[in-house]
Each structure stands twice: as structure tokens, then as C-alpha cells.
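=== RUN LOG ===
request id: a7f3
mode: sequence -> structure
chains: 1
length: 451
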Amino acid sequence: MARQKTIYSCQQCGFQSPKWLGRCPDCQQWNTLVEEHPVAAVSHPRALPEPGKPLKLSEVTGRAEDRLSCGLDELNRALGGGVVPGSLILVGGDPGIGKSTLLLQACAHLATQGTALYVTAEESARQIKLRADRLDIASDNLYLLAETSLEQIRQRIKELDPDFLVIDSIQTIFTSTLDSAPGSVSQVRECTGQLMLQAKGDGLPTFLVGHVTKDGAIAGPRVLEHMVDTVLYFEGDPGHPFRILRAVKNRYGSTNEIGVFEMREKGLREVSNPSELFLAERPEQSAGSAVVPTLEGSRPILVELQALVSGSSFGTPQRTAIGLDHKRVALLVAILEKKVELSLAGQDIFLNAAGGVRLDEPAVDLAAIAALASSHLNRVINPRLVLFGEVGLTGEVRAISQPELRIREAARLGFTQCVLPRGNLKNLAVPDSIQLIGVKHASEALENIFV
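=== RESULT ===
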């Protein structure tokens, strides 16, 4: 009898090797290669029509996709306006962040527009029922299926013919055509491929819940994110009730759109005005506090930056940043020392984005410098003032994108002054209630911010 051939697949990146290796040569991770049998040939049903002749782009006719509302405006925003029929949506996030709660709430509303099937592969149907009772969800068109076999799931889909499908989670689904364990690279890839063909062939909107690794990336092969139409990351700080749903890939809309939720006893509540929520507990007469209008996709959000600068008790001063890139913070501290001539070498520095949000864009540089200088000098920044702008290595303040959206959001919330790059002052149509102060250097900005 011929010996059965095996391969070793990396569970992080999908790299395959004929022999076991302690370290994956592709992603450089240790002890991730697992023995698997070669993937058997699987006959997929054709989900697309027979190929025709090549067409000119001008000859192709198209129309806007009809979208279905999920009942949650913040989820609709992240999806680009709603659910597109036949789309495959991957939702990832840390354990306990609220992925199942979000999709159960969405299913409750989608069940009013058709039949929804919620496949739970990690919990029993009774556990889902208990969560639904806590969320006050009751619907005769919402069906629960506790199953992990892909063949059984597809059979039930054929019998029920649902209008919406949720798979929770894709890492626990397996197909009997493969010998590898559920959650392995080959199982995740094969199950996702068959669900994709089913979604495209039947026009069935499908949500997939994905586990994440300790690095925050969705577990499984990288091809998983390439196969789906939309990738949503559910983010949140365990110490805060706020949750941010961020779109990092969307074939039917813009990327980097976010939806903001607040976790409560009755489930997730939408936050239609996150700026007011993030600034609700802001201390207005305390040094070290600055407000920056940041942009998430096409949505302006006002966030408070808090800084604390104090004398160091150790030989090496601490540099701690929460919600910002610590390397960027170290760079801004060096600019303050060299170009603004503030002595920060022997100071412990702590910088925090209040509310548990994460700020990645360079437009927060000017506000971070203002908060650090305010704490170091113990001077209060004007509470009705906002700042934004990128700061270069020579201390210059560079223009940033879409200043009008940021200024209008600040004016709507009652702010009366805005310090911004001088290069952004041209052709701005903003309310008269807010005064614009253009600056070219970080030292010039600090002269205009204190009470």
C-alpha cells in the first residue's frame, strides 16, 4: 500500500513545506507548521454563468446595487449604506468585544425583511436564546442552527432558503472532504470558498465571524480577507464601554468608515454623535488637555488628548502613549526640545487619547504638542479652541486634508477658535462663529492657544 503523502502548513500565513520546520520561513513565526494531508479535489458547483466573449468597457451596463438596512445606522455606515445581496462580510474582533451581540441585533431587524438563519458553531441554541432574551429580541423569521459541519449547514440552507445568513464563527466550521482539524488553514480556506460560491450563486448576504490572533489580525490564511467582499474590525478598550466598528476593506463602499457603539446591559447602543460623547467628561480648566478634530473615513470626530509631564524619579524618563503611536510621540517630544526650546529631557511623559479611541493620522500632531506644552508649563488651553495640523521635523506646521469638515464639526459643538496650518486657510467656507488662526510653526501655535 502506497504511503500517504503529507504536507506541513503554517497556521498563520498558509506557507506549505514537505517537512516540519520549527520556524516558518515566510512569516517568521515559531511552531506554527502543522501536519496536514493534501487537499482533496473538490468539485465546486458553478456559481457564475458560462464565460462569454470579451466586452468593451463602454458596452457593459451596470446599475447601483440595492442595499438592505440592518436596522443599525452605524453598521450601515460602516458597510457603505447597507447590506448588498450576495455579499460576503467578515467581522473580526477580540473575544467578548460584542461580535455575536452585534450580528444578533442586526439579524433581528433583517428578519423583518425576510428569513434569517443564524448558524452558531461555538454556542448552543439555548445560549443564543438567553442572549436574545436579554436583548429583547423575538422574531418568528429568525432561525437558529447549532452545527459545525459545512455539508449539514448547506443542506439546511437548501431546505430553509433563507434571505440572510450568519456563520459564527468560520474557524469552527469544517468540511469532511479534508482530514485537517477545524480552524486549520486548509479548512478555513475551503469552507470560506464554498460559502462564497453559495453567496454569489444564490444572492445570499452572508456574515462570517472571524477570530483574531494576539496581534489583532484575523486568524487563518491571509487569503481569507481577499476572498470576502467586506472586512470589518470590531475594536474597543476593555476599560471603556465604547466600541468602534471599522471597515478596512469594502468592495461596495469606501474604506476606513467607522461606526460607534456603546455596550450596555441591553446590548449595543448606537452613538450617532460620538464627538459629544468623547468630550462629555472633559475638564475645561485643567492643564494638559487639548481637543483635536480627527477624521475617520468621511466622518469628523472631536477627541480630547490628555498629557501629563512630570519630573522623573528614575534614571531613564518614561514615554507612554495610549491611543497614539509611541514612536510618533517621541518624535514630537524631540521637536519640542529642539525647535520650541522646552526642556523635557528629564521628564516623564504620558499622552492619552480619551475614550479608548486610536488616532493614527498626522493631523493630531499639533494638538499633541499643545497638550504636552500645556502640562509642562502648567498653563490652561482655551477650552473653546481646537487644533489640527501635521508637524514636521523642523517644527513647521503642514497642511492636512479636508479641513472644512473638521472646522464645521468643531463649530457645531460650540468651539469658537481653531488653530490650523496656514496652508489650509485658502478658499475655506466655514461658519462665521469660529475664528481661524493660521500658523506656520509649532512655536507660533503655542503663542495663540493659552488662556
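=== NOTES ===
Residues 257 and 297 are 4 Å apart (CA to CA).
DSSP finds eleven helices and 21 strands in the chain.
=== END ===
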